[in-house]
Write a structure and sequence with these properties.
six-stranded antiparallel beta sheet, single chain, mainly beta, binds beta-D-fructofuranose, 491 residues
Length: 491
Amino acid sequence: MTVQYKENHRPQFHFSPKEKWMNDPNGMVFFNEEYHLFYQYHPHGTTWGPMHWGHAVSKDMIHWEELPIALYPDEHGAIFSGSAVVDWNNTTGFFEDAPGLVAIFTHADNYPGTELPRQRQSLAYSKDDGRTWVTYEGNPVLSDVDITDYRDPKVFWHEETNKWVMVLATGQTVTIYTSTNLREWEFASVFGMNEGSHDGVWECPDLFQLPIDGEQENKKWVMLVSIGDNPKFKEGSRTQYFVGDFDGTTFLNEHSEEAVLWLDYGRDNYAGVSWSDIPREDGRRIYIGWMSNWRYANQLPTEEWRSAMTLPRELSLTSTAAGLRIVQSPVAEINSIRGEAESFKDLALDENKPISYKISELTEIEVEFEKETAELFGLSVMNSKEEKTTISYDAVKELLIVDRTAAGDNSFSESFAAIQEAPLNMDGETINLQIFVDASSIEVFANSGRIAVTSLVFPHEKANKVNLFSKEGTANVRQLTLTPLKSIWSM
Ligand code: FRU
């Protein structure tokens, strides 16, 4: 028997459930010194099925303790995605002595006597730090017979208007509702009719403020919207965002004429949303996504468990010539799993002179390339079978390319082998990359988090070397740092 958390392909520094199927992260909230992570969970199989909310807690968002299932399907249906908040002022009336947690989620069943899906919003609350939950007797609290895809409520407290705000995925729009008590909701507005990508059904919205260029006094609102898989597009399910203003009622997209803004250019970051109630002194906006894609999620080559989350990432905005853009980087707490780094400087690359270094199977690679004459340069993360994931910069087309076509097992889905491309301008004459190599994923952050590319990979052997190269000319590696990472399951 294989040891738990040591199974083939088991992520070593990303959260995955002990066993069975997981999809979207849900109800992330910080309360009483704990980060909570709930998630879409099917405890009876390794494919999607009747949804429960699984539950894990952490002190640092890196080391997780899995707890018993928080929410089970009940007379109103299965428990789809949603959010959780701290009801600090007992607006609900659920709490007498101390503030507690309220989960706002979608109940999914069928209209009685039919096969027609019905999705309605409901509440549950906990007085013991999320260990046990009571479903509200007045459930569901919000429904609309005219809208079939009506789900994934994300709720936050809007200080200026003294109200709770809910963003809800409604077909191919996001509908905004407000409330004073989480139990009664009022329609506020609809966003998205002619905005962004409509390649698939809209799911899992989020709405929050982010500082611009690190200035806490200077903020804009950002809306995240995941879009579901549509066989017509090779990317499968993915996540877009909008930047603009929100007055408590209406979200205005500042750049409605713009091309679609993608949160991640990799195939495997979906349905992500942000943590609620991060303390003001901390001030971060922290995001986590489901590291998979509906195109093939049910077929991934794992046996005991299926799916992991991305690394938790801090989000902010940066101003670029093209407008405001999201920047993301793994939370600083990742430091707790870093081992002793090795650094190298000024490595000259040319066509016939690739340079290799041994790496540990779990590694962070930080590298700064200087272009010189090369048309293309980059690195491959490899194993002893010469399987490789290649991360390169095409200086002619100004594209960051993450190629996993030769990374390992591709056989389980025709859509899996992929060359993922992201538009990326050079930062002066250089490109910097921060890359996290886990047992079955590679996360790339380019130019200090301006571009993220998250990919699953299923190599037949563990990674053991990195190979740096240039093509059609020379490039200089100004700096290369290799940091071995520790498994979160070993302590
Ligand atoms: C997104 C999603 C949500 C839904 C949940 C069901 O991945 O389709 O819209 O609530 O998964 O598990």
